[in-house]
Amino acid sequence: MISFPLYLRLKGNVLFHLRAYEDSRHFYLRALNAKKKLSPNKNCVDVANAIFNMGNCCMKLGEFDEAFAFLNKAREIYASINEESLEMAQVCSQIGCLHSLVRFVLELRHFRS
Hints:
By secondary structure, the protein is mainly alpha-helical. Helix content is 79%, strand content 0%.
């Protein structure tokens, strides 16, 4: 059984792929609020994923200042939980942080060797 916040985030994902960005953002926000009520841990992968997705919605809607704020917040959360994952690389590329992306890839290579 999936959790309610995950259900809301997945619903947001479907709407995003249908290009219903306003509605998608609404479900990501609901997922964040539900996650906050269920878990005191605000710096987890689920929260970072929802914030990252909200940033992508803002980009599609042309709300670039909000997009940058959401994407940067997602990057901070991924970094704070040491999330060595594709999500962190995607965030870095989305906000145009080529330097951060290169450093992340190099650190990941060093970590894996």
